[in-house]
Amino acid sequence: xxxxxxxxxxLTLALPRMAGDLRVSTTxxxxxxxxxxxxxxxxxxxxxxxxxxxxxxxxLVSGLGIFGAAAALCAVAPTAGLLIAFRILQGVGAAxxxxxxxxxxxxxxxxxxxxxxxxxxxxxxAVGTALGPFVGGFLTAGPGWRWIFWFLVPxxxxxxxxxxxxxxxxxxxxxxxRLDLTGAIVxxxxxxxxxxxxxxxxxxxxxxxxxxxxxxxGIVLLAAFPLVEGHVRLPLIDMRLFGNKAFVLVTAVGTxxxxxxASTVFLATLYLQDVRGLGPLTAGLVFLGxxxxxxxxxxxxxxxxxxxxxxxxxxxxxxxxxxxxxALTFSRPWGAYVPVFCLCGLGFGLGWSFANIGTQRVVRTxxxxxxxxxxxxxxIVVAGVGxxxxxxxxxxxxxxxxxxxxxxxxxxRVLAAGLLLSAILxxxxxxxxx
Length: 434
Description:
The chain is mainly alpha-helical. Helix content is 82%, strand content 0%. The chain has three domains: 1-167, Growth Hormone, Chain: A (Up-down Bundle), CATH 1.20.1250; 191-235; 239-426, Growth Hormone, Chain: A, CATH 1.20.1250. The two termini are 27 Å apart. The model has no long low-confidence stretch (mean pLDDT 82).
Protein backbone atom coordinates (compact mmCIF):
# COMPACT_ATOMS: atom_id res chain seq x y z
CA UNK A 1 0.00 0.00 0.00
CA UNK A 2 2.90 2.35 0.81
CA UNK A 3 4.48 1.65 -2.60
CA UNK A 4 1.29 2.27 -4.56
CA UNK A 5 0.49 5.54 -2.78
CA UNK A 6 4.06 6.89 -2.93
CA UNK A 7 4.44 5.96 -6.60
CA UNK A 8 1.53 8.02 -7.88
CA UNK A 9 2.20 11.15 -5.85
CA UNK A 10 5.97 11.06 -6.43
CA LEU A 11 5.56 10.98 -10.18
CA THR A 12 3.30 14.03 -10.37
CA LEU A 13 6.14 16.49 -9.67
CA ALA A 14 8.50 14.69 -12.05
CA LEU A 15 6.33 15.01 -15.20
CA PRO A 16 7.93 18.21 -16.61
CA ARG A 17 11.47 16.80 -16.31
CA MET A 18 10.37 13.44 -17.72
CA ALA A 19 8.72 15.15 -20.69
CA GLY A 20 11.89 17.12 -21.41
CA ASP A 21 14.12 14.05 -21.27
CA LEU A 22 11.79 12.01 -23.49
CA ARG A 23 11.24 14.95 -25.89
CA VAL A 24 7.45 15.12 -25.64
CA SER A 25 5.07 17.69 -24.17
CA THR A 26 3.97 17.47 -20.55
CA THR A 27 0.38 17.19 -21.79
CA UNK A 28 1.25 14.09 -23.82
CA UNK A 29 3.11 12.52 -20.93
CA UNK A 30 0.11 13.13 -18.64
CA UNK A 31 -0.97 9.70 -19.85
CA UNK A 32 1.74 8.25 -17.61
CA UNK A 33 -0.62 9.24 -14.77
CA UNK A 34 -3.94 8.92 -16.60
CA UNK A 35 -3.17 5.47 -18.02
CA UNK A 36 -2.20 4.25 -14.57
CA UNK A 37 -5.46 5.52 -13.05
CA UNK A 38 -7.44 4.08 -15.98
CA UNK A 39 -6.05 0.58 -15.35
CA UNK A 40 -6.44 0.92 -11.59
CA UNK A 41 -10.08 1.99 -11.79
CA UNK A 42 -10.97 -0.64 -14.38
CA UNK A 43 -9.48 -3.71 -12.69
CA UNK A 44 -10.05 -3.20 -8.94
CA UNK A 45 -13.24 -5.29 -8.80
CA UNK A 46 -11.70 -7.97 -11.00
CA UNK A 47 -8.58 -8.03 -8.81
CA UNK A 48 -10.66 -8.48 -5.68
CA UNK A 49 -12.68 -11.35 -7.14
CA UNK A 50 -9.61 -13.10 -8.57
CA UNK A 51 -8.25 -13.34 -5.04
CA UNK A 52 -11.48 -14.81 -3.67
CA UNK A 53 -11.52 -17.45 -6.44
CA UNK A 54 -7.86 -18.38 -7.00
CA UNK A 55 -6.23 -17.46 -3.68
CA UNK A 56 -5.67 -14.08 -2.04
CA UNK A 57 -1.99 -14.53 -1.23
CA UNK A 58 -1.29 -15.78 -4.77
CA UNK A 59 -3.01 -12.78 -6.36
CA LEU A 60 -1.35 -10.29 -3.98
CA VAL A 61 2.13 -11.65 -4.73
CA SER A 62 1.27 -11.69 -8.46
CA GLY A 63 0.17 -8.06 -8.22
CA LEU A 64 3.41 -7.14 -6.47
CA GLY A 65 5.36 -8.96 -9.18
CA ILE A 66 3.54 -7.09 -11.96
CA PHE A 67 3.88 -3.76 -10.15
CA GLY A 68 7.59 -4.21 -9.42
CA ALA A 69 8.49 -5.52 -12.87
CA ALA A 70 6.58 -2.66 -14.51
CA ALA A 71 8.41 -0.16 -12.25
CA ALA A 72 11.77 -1.55 -13.41
CA LEU A 73 10.62 -1.38 -17.05
CA CYS A 74 9.51 2.24 -16.55
CA ALA A 75 12.97 3.03 -15.16
CA VAL A 76 14.65 1.93 -18.39
CA ALA A 77 11.92 2.96 -20.88
CA PRO A 78 13.62 4.71 -23.84
CA THR A 79 10.47 6.38 -25.23
CA ALA A 80 7.35 8.06 -23.91
CA GLY A 81 5.11 5.46 -25.58
CA LEU A 82 6.82 2.56 -23.82
CA LEU A 83 6.80 4.43 -20.52
CA ILE A 84 3.04 4.98 -20.77
CA ALA A 85 2.49 1.30 -21.69
CA PHE A 86 4.52 0.14 -18.69
CA ARG A 87 2.64 2.57 -16.45
CA ILE A 88 -0.67 1.02 -17.58
CA LEU A 89 0.78 -2.39 -16.69
CA GLN A 90 1.82 -0.98 -13.31
CA GLY A 91 -1.77 0.18 -12.79
CA VAL A 92 -2.98 -3.39 -13.36
CA GLY A 93 -0.56 -4.56 -10.67
CA ALA A 94 -1.82 -1.85 -8.31
CA ALA A 95 -5.41 -2.96 -8.97
CA UNK A 96 -4.47 -6.41 -7.63
CA UNK A 97 -2.53 -5.01 -4.66
CA UNK A 98 -5.19 -2.61 -3.35
CA UNK A 99 -8.09 -5.02 -2.66
CA UNK A 100 -5.81 -7.97 -1.84
CA UNK A 101 -3.97 -6.01 0.85
CA UNK A 102 -7.30 -5.55 2.62
CA UNK A 103 -8.50 -9.09 1.92
CA UNK A 104 -5.30 -10.87 3.00
CA UNK A 105 -5.29 -8.96 6.29
CA UNK A 106 -8.99 -9.68 6.85
CA UNK A 107 -8.38 -13.41 6.47
CA UNK A 108 -5.09 -13.39 8.45
CA UNK A 109 -6.17 -11.56 11.62
CA UNK A 110 -8.88 -12.52 14.13
CA UNK A 111 -11.91 -10.27 14.25
CA UNK A 112 -10.88 -8.49 17.45
CA UNK A 113 -7.58 -7.22 15.98
CA UNK A 114 -8.51 -7.02 12.29
CA UNK A 115 -9.59 -3.38 12.43
CA UNK A 116 -6.34 -2.26 14.03
CA UNK A 117 -4.29 -4.12 11.42
CA UNK A 118 -6.23 -2.57 8.56
CA UNK A 119 -6.05 0.87 10.16
CA UNK A 120 -2.26 0.67 10.40
CA UNK A 121 -2.04 -0.30 6.75
CA UNK A 122 -4.12 2.68 5.64
CA UNK A 123 -2.04 4.90 7.91
CA UNK A 124 1.11 3.61 6.21
CA UNK A 125 -0.50 4.24 2.82
CA ALA A 126 -1.18 7.84 3.89
CA VAL A 127 2.50 8.18 4.87
CA GLY A 128 3.35 7.15 1.30
CA THR A 129 0.98 9.83 0.03
CA ALA A 130 2.63 12.46 2.25
CA LEU A 131 6.19 11.43 1.32
CA GLY A 132 5.43 11.05 -2.40
CA PRO A 133 5.92 14.69 -3.49
CA PHE A 134 9.08 15.07 -1.38
CA VAL A 135 10.63 11.81 -2.60
CA GLY A 136 9.67 12.64 -6.19
CA GLY A 137 11.08 16.15 -5.99
CA PHE A 138 14.29 15.02 -4.26
CA LEU A 139 15.05 12.19 -6.70
CA THR A 140 14.09 14.24 -9.77
CA ALA A 141 16.36 17.10 -8.72
CA GLY A 142 19.15 14.67 -7.73
CA PRO A 143 19.93 11.40 -9.55
CA GLY A 144 16.97 11.76 -11.92
CA TRP A 145 13.31 10.79 -12.31
CA ARG A 146 14.11 7.18 -13.29
CA TRP A 147 15.22 6.59 -9.71
CA ILE A 148 11.63 7.09 -8.54
CA PHE A 149 10.89 3.73 -10.13
CA TRP A 150 14.10 2.06 -8.95
CA PHE A 151 13.32 3.34 -5.43
CA LEU A 152 10.13 1.23 -5.38
CA VAL A 153 11.69 -2.10 -6.40
CA PRO A 154 13.31 -3.13 -3.08
CA UNK A 155 10.12 -2.23 -1.18
CA UNK A 156 8.08 -4.39 -3.55
CA UNK A 157 10.48 -7.33 -3.17
CA UNK A 158 10.37 -7.00 0.63
CA UNK A 159 6.56 -6.86 0.59
CA UNK A 160 6.38 -10.04 -1.53
CA UNK A 161 8.78 -11.91 0.79
CA UNK A 162 6.86 -10.85 3.92
CA UNK A 163 3.56 -11.87 2.30
CA UNK A 164 4.88 -15.32 1.40
CA UNK A 165 6.46 -15.92 4.81
CA UNK A 166 3.93 -14.35 7.16
CA UNK A 167 0.51 -15.09 5.63
CA UNK A 168 -1.44 -18.20 4.75
CA UNK A 169 -3.36 -18.81 1.56
CA UNK A 170 -7.12 -18.31 1.66
CA UNK A 171 -9.95 -18.26 -0.86
CA UNK A 172 -13.72 -18.61 -1.14
CA UNK A 173 -14.02 -22.39 -0.83
CA UNK A 174 -17.64 -22.31 -1.96
CA UNK A 175 -16.61 -21.10 -5.44
CA UNK A 176 -15.06 -23.24 -8.19
CA UNK A 177 -11.91 -21.83 -9.77
CA ARG A 178 -13.68 -20.32 -12.76
CA LEU A 179 -14.00 -16.65 -13.65
CA ASP A 180 -17.02 -14.90 -15.12
CA LEU A 181 -15.23 -13.57 -18.22
CA THR A 182 -18.32 -11.94 -19.74
CA GLY A 183 -19.03 -9.99 -16.57
CA ALA A 184 -15.34 -9.11 -16.19
CA ILE A 185 -15.18 -7.68 -19.74
CA VAL A 186 -18.43 -5.70 -19.40
CA UNK A 187 -17.54 -4.25 -15.99
CA UNK A 188 -13.87 -3.48 -16.74
CA UNK A 189 -14.71 -1.86 -20.09
CA UNK A 190 -17.50 0.22 -18.53
CA UNK A 191 -15.27 1.41 -15.69
CA UNK A 192 -12.42 2.15 -18.12
CA UNK A 193 -14.69 4.29 -20.32
CA UNK A 194 -16.11 6.23 -17.35
CA UNK A 195 -12.61 6.77 -15.92
CA UNK A 196 -11.38 7.95 -19.33
CA UNK A 197 -14.30 10.38 -19.68
CA UNK A 198 -13.62 11.85 -16.24
CA UNK A 199 -9.91 12.17 -17.03
CA UNK A 200 -10.65 14.07 -20.27
CA UNK A 201 -12.98 16.65 -18.67
CA UNK A 202 -10.16 19.17 -17.89
CA UNK A 203 -8.98 19.18 -21.53
CA UNK A 204 -12.21 18.47 -23.48
CA UNK A 205 -14.72 20.19 -21.20
CA UNK A 206 -17.70 18.77 -19.36
CA UNK A 207 -19.91 19.09 -22.45
CA UNK A 208 -17.33 17.90 -24.99
CA UNK A 209 -18.47 15.10 -27.38
CA UNK A 210 -15.50 12.91 -26.36
CA UNK A 211 -16.48 13.13 -22.69
CA UNK A 212 -20.18 12.57 -23.35
CA UNK A 213 -19.61 9.76 -25.86
CA UNK A 214 -17.21 7.68 -23.79
CA UNK A 215 -18.97 8.50 -20.53
CA UNK A 216 -22.38 7.49 -21.87
CA UNK A 217 -21.00 4.26 -23.35
CA GLY A 218 -19.42 3.42 -20.02
CA ILE A 219 -22.64 4.14 -18.10
CA VAL A 220 -24.63 1.93 -20.51
CA LEU A 221 -22.20 -0.96 -19.95
CA LEU A 222 -22.30 -0.50 -16.17
CA ALA A 223 -26.11 -0.40 -16.27
CA ALA A 224 -26.10 -3.63 -18.33
CA PHE A 225 -23.74 -5.37 -15.90
CA PRO A 226 -26.44 -6.47 -13.39
CA LEU A 227 -28.49 -7.91 -16.28
CA VAL A 228 -25.45 -9.86 -17.49
CA GLU A 229 -24.75 -11.14 -13.97
CA GLY A 230 -28.36 -12.29 -13.62
CA HIS A 231 -27.81 -14.82 -16.43
CA VAL A 232 -24.47 -16.20 -15.18
CA ARG A 233 -24.27 -19.21 -12.85
CA LEU A 234 -21.09 -17.97 -11.13
CA PRO A 235 -21.23 -14.15 -11.34
CA LEU A 236 -18.22 -11.87 -10.89
CA ILE A 237 -20.14 -9.92 -8.22
CA ASP A 238 -22.91 -11.34 -6.11
CA MET A 239 -25.49 -8.56 -6.60
CA ARG A 240 -26.92 -9.35 -3.17
CA LEU A 241 -23.93 -7.39 -1.87
CA PHE A 242 -25.83 -4.22 -2.80
CA GLY A 243 -28.78 -5.42 -0.75
CA ASN A 244 -26.54 -5.24 2.31
CA LYS A 245 -27.66 -1.86 3.66
CA ALA A 246 -24.71 -1.53 6.02
CA PHE A 247 -22.24 -2.12 3.16
CA VAL A 248 -23.93 0.43 0.89
CA LEU A 249 -24.24 3.01 3.68
CA VAL A 250 -20.61 2.79 4.84
CA THR A 251 -19.32 2.90 1.26
CA ALA A 252 -21.50 5.92 0.40
CA VAL A 253 -20.41 7.93 3.46
CA GLY A 254 -16.75 7.04 2.87
CA THR A 255 -17.08 8.14 -0.76
CA UNK A 256 -18.38 11.54 0.34
CA UNK A 257 -15.31 11.93 2.58
CA UNK A 258 -13.01 10.94 -0.31
CA UNK A 259 -14.65 13.44 -2.69
CA UNK A 260 -14.19 16.17 -0.09
CA UNK A 261 -10.55 15.19 0.46
CA ALA A 262 -9.62 15.20 -3.23
CA SER A 263 -11.48 18.45 -3.91
CA THR A 264 -10.05 20.20 -0.84
CA VAL A 265 -6.46 19.36 -1.81
CA PHE A 266 -7.09 20.61 -5.35
CA LEU A 267 -8.82 23.84 -4.28
CA ALA A 268 -6.45 24.65 -1.43
CA THR A 269 -3.42 24.15 -3.71
CA LEU A 270 -4.79 26.76 -6.13
CA TYR A 271 -5.85 29.08 -3.32
CA LEU A 272 -2.55 29.06 -1.42
CA GLN A 273 -0.39 29.58 -4.52
CA ASP A 274 -2.57 31.62 -6.90
CA VAL A 275 -4.51 33.73 -4.39
CA ARG A 276 -2.24 33.88 -1.35
CA GLY A 277 0.94 33.90 -3.42
CA LEU A 278 2.77 31.20 -1.46
CA GLY A 279 5.62 29.37 -3.14
CA PRO A 280 5.36 25.59 -3.81
CA LEU A 281 7.66 24.76 -0.87
CA THR A 282 5.70 26.87 1.65
CA ALA A 283 2.40 25.51 0.34
CA GLY A 284 3.82 21.99 0.64
CA LEU A 285 4.73 22.64 4.28
CA VAL A 286 1.18 23.82 4.97
CA PHE A 287 -0.07 20.53 3.53
CA LEU A 288 2.13 18.50 5.88
CA GLY A 289 -0.47 18.89 8.63
CA UNK A 290 -3.16 17.48 6.35
CA UNK A 291 -0.94 14.55 5.34
CA UNK A 292 0.22 13.80 8.89
CA UNK A 293 -3.33 13.85 10.26
CA UNK A 294 -4.54 11.61 7.43
CA UNK A 295 -1.76 9.15 8.26
CA UNK A 296 -2.68 9.21 11.96
CA UNK A 297 -6.36 8.66 11.09
CA UNK A 298 -5.69 5.16 9.68
CA UNK A 299 -4.55 3.56 12.98
CA UNK A 300 -7.13 5.64 14.86
CA UNK A 301 -9.88 4.24 12.61
CA UNK A 302 -8.70 0.72 13.45
CA UNK A 303 -8.68 1.48 17.19
CA UNK A 304 -12.12 3.10 17.11
CA UNK A 305 -13.49 0.29 14.99
CA UNK A 306 -12.69 -2.22 17.71
CA UNK A 307 -14.73 -0.24 20.23
CA UNK A 308 -17.54 1.52 18.37
CA UNK A 309 -19.94 0.77 15.52
CA UNK A 310 -19.40 1.92 11.95
CA UNK A 311 -22.33 4.27 12.44
CA UNK A 312 -20.59 6.08 15.31
CA UNK A 313 -17.13 6.25 13.70
CA UNK A 314 -18.38 7.43 10.30
CA UNK A 315 -20.68 10.04 11.88
CA UNK A 316 -17.73 11.42 13.87
CA UNK A 317 -15.52 11.38 10.75
CA UNK A 318 -17.92 13.32 8.53
CA UNK A 319 -18.79 15.75 11.34
CA UNK A 320 -15.11 16.59 11.91
CA UNK A 321 -14.51 16.85 8.17
CA UNK A 322 -17.55 19.06 7.55
CA UNK A 323 -16.98 21.43 10.47
CA UNK A 324 -13.25 21.83 9.76
CA UNK A 325 -13.95 22.43 6.06
CA UNK A 326 -16.44 25.11 7.04
CA ALA A 327 -13.83 26.67 9.36
CA LEU A 328 -11.35 26.62 6.48
CA THR A 329 -13.54 29.02 4.50
CA PHE A 330 -13.35 31.57 7.34
CA SER A 331 -9.58 31.24 7.90
CA ARG A 332 -8.03 34.47 6.67
CA PRO A 333 -4.33 34.27 7.77
CA TRP A 334 -2.76 31.45 5.75
CA GLY A 335 -1.04 30.23 8.93
CA ALA A 336 -4.48 29.31 10.29
CA TYR A 337 -4.69 26.72 7.51
CA VAL A 338 -2.20 24.49 9.34
CA PRO A 339 -4.33 23.53 12.40
CA VAL A 340 -7.55 23.52 10.38
CA PHE A 341 -5.92 21.29 7.75
CA CYS A 342 -4.95 18.88 10.54
CA LEU A 343 -8.63 18.56 11.51
CA CYS A 344 -9.61 18.15 7.83
CA GLY A 345 -7.07 15.36 7.42
CA LEU A 346 -8.33 13.65 10.57
CA GLY A 347 -11.96 13.71 9.40
CA PHE A 348 -11.27 12.72 5.78
CA GLY A 349 -8.73 10.08 6.79
CA LEU A 350 -11.14 8.50 9.28
CA GLY A 351 -13.88 8.44 6.64
CA TRP A 352 -11.71 6.95 3.89
CA SER A 353 -9.96 4.40 6.11
CA PHE A 354 -13.10 3.25 7.87
CA ALA A 355 -14.97 2.88 4.58
CA ASN A 356 -12.50 0.07 3.82
CA ILE A 357 -12.40 -1.29 7.38
CA GLY A 358 -16.15 -1.01 8.03
CA THR A 359 -17.21 -2.79 4.84
CA GLN A 360 -14.99 -5.74 5.80
CA ARG A 361 -16.91 -6.00 9.07
CA VAL A 362 -20.33 -6.27 7.43
CA VAL A 363 -19.58 -8.94 4.79
CA ARG A 364 -18.62 -12.59 5.05
CA THR A 365 -14.84 -13.17 5.19
CA UNK A 366 -14.89 -15.44 2.13
CA UNK A 367 -16.24 -12.49 0.07
CA UNK A 368 -13.76 -9.97 1.49
CA UNK A 369 -11.83 -9.54 -1.76
CA UNK A 370 -15.00 -8.84 -3.74
CA UNK A 371 -16.19 -6.31 -1.13
CA UNK A 372 -12.80 -4.58 -0.99
CA UNK A 373 -12.65 -4.30 -4.78
CA UNK A 374 -16.16 -2.85 -5.04
CA UNK A 375 -15.58 -0.37 -2.19
CA UNK A 376 -12.27 0.89 -3.56
CA UNK A 377 -13.65 1.17 -7.09
CA UNK A 378 -16.51 3.35 -5.85
CA UNK A 379 -14.17 5.44 -3.68
CA ILE A 380 -11.68 6.09 -6.49
CA VAL A 381 -13.96 6.44 -9.54
CA VAL A 382 -16.66 8.55 -7.85
CA ALA A 383 -14.03 10.76 -6.19
CA GLY A 384 -12.53 11.29 -9.65
CA VAL A 385 -15.96 12.36 -10.96
CA GLY A 386 -16.38 14.66 -7.95
CA UNK A 387 -12.99 16.25 -8.51
CA UNK A 388 -13.77 16.86 -12.20
CA UNK A 389 -17.10 18.46 -11.26
CA UNK A 390 -15.29 20.63 -8.69
CA UNK A 391 -12.77 21.85 -11.28
CA UNK A 392 -15.53 22.58 -13.81
CA UNK A 393 -17.63 24.42 -11.20
CA UNK A 394 -14.65 26.57 -10.23
CA UNK A 395 -14.09 27.53 -13.87
CA UNK A 396 -17.80 28.37 -14.29
CA UNK A 397 -17.89 30.56 -11.16
CA UNK A 398 -14.77 32.45 -12.20
CA UNK A 399 -16.10 32.86 -15.77
CA UNK A 400 -19.27 34.38 -14.29
CA UNK A 401 -17.15 37.05 -12.61
CA UNK A 402 -16.56 35.49 -9.21
CA UNK A 403 -13.30 36.26 -7.43
CA UNK A 404 -10.98 33.22 -7.15
CA UNK A 405 -11.05 33.24 -3.34
CA UNK A 406 -14.84 33.62 -3.17
CA UNK A 407 -15.33 30.83 -5.75
CA UNK A 408 -13.15 28.44 -3.77
CA UNK A 409 -15.01 29.26 -0.55
CA UNK A 410 -18.43 28.63 -2.15
CA UNK A 411 -17.41 25.15 -3.31
CA UNK A 412 -15.80 24.27 0.03
CA ARG A 413 -18.98 25.30 1.88
CA VAL A 414 -21.09 23.10 -0.40
CA LEU A 415 -18.75 20.18 0.31
CA ALA A 416 -18.94 20.93 4.05
CA ALA A 417 -22.74 20.91 3.86
CA GLY A 418 -22.63 17.54 2.07
CA LEU A 419 -20.42 16.04 4.77
CA LEU A 420 -22.56 17.37 7.61
CA LEU A 421 -25.76 16.18 5.90
CA SER A 422 -24.31 12.68 5.43
CA ALA A 423 -23.33 12.65 9.14
CA ILE A 424 -26.86 13.62 10.17
CA LEU A 425 -28.48 11.00 7.90
CA UNK A 426 -26.09 8.30 9.11
CA UNK A 427 -26.76 9.14 12.76
CA UNK A 428 -30.51 9.14 12.18
CA UNK A 429 -30.97 6.15 9.84
CA UNK A 430 -27.74 4.14 10.03
CA UNK A 431 -28.79 1.47 12.54
CA UNK A 432 -27.71 -1.29 10.14
CA UNK A 433 -24.08 -0.02 10.21
CA UNK A 434 -23.20 -1.76 13.48
